[in-house]
Amino acid sequence: MPPDASSMPGLPLSALTPDQEKLLAREVDYETFAQGHLIYAQEISRVKQIYIVIKGCLEFYYDRDNIRRRSGKIPVHGVFGGLSILFNNHMAIHCLAALEETRVIALGPDIFLDLCRQNKTFQDYFALELGRCMADKTIAGVLARRHRDRELNLPFFNQPVSAIFRPNILTCTRDTPIGEAAQKMSRNNASAILVRPASKPRAESKTTAETQHIDGIVTDADIKKRAVARGLACTEPVSRIISSPVETISADCQVFEAFLTMIDRDKRHLAVTGKSGDISGIITEKDLIAAQTRSTFLLIKAVKSARDMAALDNVHSRLERLLLDPISNGASTDYITRLITAFSDAIIDKIIRFSIDRAGPPPCRFVFLTMGSEGREEQTLISDQDNAIIFEDLEDPDKAAKAKQYFDTLAQLICGKLNRAGYRYCEGNNMAQNPDWCQPMSVWKSYFKKWIRAASPEDLLHSSIFFDFRGTWGHKTMADELKDYLLSAIGKWSGFLRNMTENAVFFKPPVGLFGKFIVESKGQHKNALDIKLAILPIIDFTRIYALKNGITQTNTLVRLFRLYTRHALTAREYADILQSYNFLTGLRFRRQITTIMDEKAEPDNYINPSNLSSLDQLMLKEVFRLVEKLQQKLNIEFTGVV
Fold first, then answer.
1. 177, 222, 410, 618: least buried by Cβ within 10 Å?
2. Which long-range contacts (CB under 8 A, 24 or more apart) does 208-211 make?
């Protein structure tokens, strides 16, 4: 029989009535935790039960950047979980672990919440405890983040502007020199500055009274178009380039009103006003676009807190839905791909842990590699698998054979679970579950050596996929070792880059002699072209030059920047390639969301040029001309052919 609750001294239990004590005694369960057992992880675990310690001791602590910032003990009769359930939507406010073998009484959240509703003194105990804890900045930060996450989990356009707005006020006077205003904007990382009437010099931060006397606004676009483009001296006053009057929006307005205001009035900046009508700062078009992507972090948190595969079934489709709005509204393609990469890495981490729980501990060191677009951190909404496993070489033949058997089994588990999560099997079978791509380090080095020296068409195909790899999970230094071997091997066999070039220039941009797009003439994608194939020449160009220059990074944009800083590309070449790559990637994302939203189909890469605006068509043709120039550059440098 459970002990009578009244025998447990101290608040909050002493506040219970006799009937509530009997209810508590009937409903409790017991649990025992081994020493060192992590019961809850801060901001990841859901608190499903209230724990009352009856033997042993628990420890709570706050984890920030993997450092314990504050800790404490929960001794016998201590209670844990009430604050998290009542005030943090069941999410753990801090980490909880057993300092020693500990036995607890476990009370379900429904009974706990019923007791709170029935007994004000019982509930007030936790309210007072919350007030005490909020004095601690660490706890306050955890609760604030959770509150912000709940706000951002609302349908995006229905949120108030205040949910995504950070008060940030920057001002100058009408007689402030343009150059001084630009420097102030730069120092504060601001894209606009509010302009007050001419007066005596004031501090950069504006007082409440001054918010009632704003003459206008100067944006970075105003400086470019009205000052730089017209040749105005930087000593001229900002009154020469001011935009007036300032368009405003209340902090209580919904986000869709901010979007409509910007569209209707052709503005990219709005001054945000409080309840008194005073301006509290500026919200920009970029703020609105960036805010839409924050909800993906909530999804990543959900992935990290998953307890089993059921929580991850087809989870990739949830990411697609979250990214539709930011993609539609022009969010940076680089930022979108980085979010997709962060999400994919979280999925891989959780799935590998689930798989190891099933397969047992690894017999030796290993690393899980992602390759292709995922290895370059350039995934789009089309999600298939390109992965492999490298494991440690073992001298003992029996141990080596058992290791191979273990990792083949582990690879089957991982790839199967990734498929369940929405990452389709690779049609070319370039996955770790293919025994050829689950090998010890020595075998991988022999693969790379063969592909570099033989350079058959199949070898070059493997090179284009496998050479863009990164270590995603496990002993990542093993991936670094293989990368070093790759660059060294290429340096000793220069003919390989020639072979890669000949393969890369095989693709011809789909534009005819008279500037007409070459499209599919029949089939499902009639009158369309594959935009993915149009991007590949830029990726190939960048890969070849990166390998030549010993650049270890795989991301195309990072490789381009490294090439530019090493003077392998001129400033003009770098800018042109960067703009072209981002344009093509943007078209690809727009096509994929069109198939999802309008066609209710799986995303694809086929674009009908006639559906593009005349400006986009013109830009696409210019990009294809640039691709031809890049291929000529490759040919001249690596094959000697003009």
1. 618
2. 208/278, 210/171, 211/169, 211/278, 211/279, 211/280
54 CA to centre of own chain: 43
Average of pLDDT values for 509-533?
Answer: 87
Q: Residue 163: which of 43, 270, 288, 44 has the closest Cα?
A: 288
Helix (H, G, I), strand (E, B) or coil at 64: strand
Give 162-212 as a 3 state SS string: HHCCCCCCCEEECCCEHHHHHHHHHHCCCCEEEEECCCCCCCCCCCCHHHH
pLDDT at 584: 94
Q: Which residues contact 333 (CB under 8 A, 6 or more apart)?
A: 582, 585, 586, 589
- Tokens standing for 469? 């790899």
Residue range 109-165, pLDDT digits in tens: 777 777 777 877 777 666 565 555 544 555 555 555 444 444 334 455 557 787 777
**Encoded amino acid at 413, one letter:** L
Please give the residue that has the higher pLDDT: either 168 or 184: 184
- Distances from the Cα of 430 to the Cαs of 375, 384, 415, 618, in angstroms? 13, 10, 11, 37
Query: Is 10 a residue whose pLDDT tops 60?
Result: no
Is the link from the previous residue into 245 a cis peptide, with omega within 30 of 0?
yes
Q: Do the Cβ atoms of 448 and 388 come closer than 8 Å?
A: no
276 or 239, which is more confident: 239
Q: How far apart are CA 28 and CA 300, in angstroms?
A: 33
